[in-house]
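Appendix B, Record 12. Input sequence as logged:
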Amino acid sequence: MSLKLYYHPLSSFCMKALIALYETGTPFEPQIVNLMDARERTDFIALWPIGKFPVLRDEAKGRTVPESSVIIEYLARHYPGVTRFIPADPDEAREMRLRDRVLDLYLHMPMQKVVTDKLRPEGKNDPFGVEEAREKIRTTLGILETDIAGKTWAMGDAFTMADCAAAPPLFYVDKIMPFRETHPLSAAYFDRLTARPSFARVLAEAEPYFKMFPG
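Logged structural output:
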């Protein structure tokens, strides 16, 4: 099998890449990595020194592709499926990438800040940083609430990379900062995402690991 995905099912950025793989139906070999295992961590860092999930390895092309957005663009270019993640129109593609960046940087990353702070040793927490992250989440949810009005997906009728970016952080944000009452349009969008077969499959595969989530 040409493609291998190095990931962990609980990782939200890995979920983003998995959604794209399941949308395209591209065969791949899943390589779950336990970073707490010294040997597995060493092997993974040898593949990608930054040591962050996910990483796609294409043995047929001899390429190592890190970062979820780059992985999705790579799949769109080399392993396209029915779902077109990048709009053909350059201006629409730019708008889609903006949404992808906003969701990753201002929803995804702050969510991770709030969650990982719970894992810090006693006395090493960062309450100021966590409150900053929560405020950024609230701001981004407000942007999403306005932007998603009248749309099925982030870009309208077509499911794109921006939707792959939205689903995982919304799933975790709803656990740490429930938003259904305050942001009903975003909640309805999230319900559509969870009903999407690709994301439903990602969540089903991650379920055995949810007990590890500190939210």
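DSSP finds eight helices and four strands in the chain.
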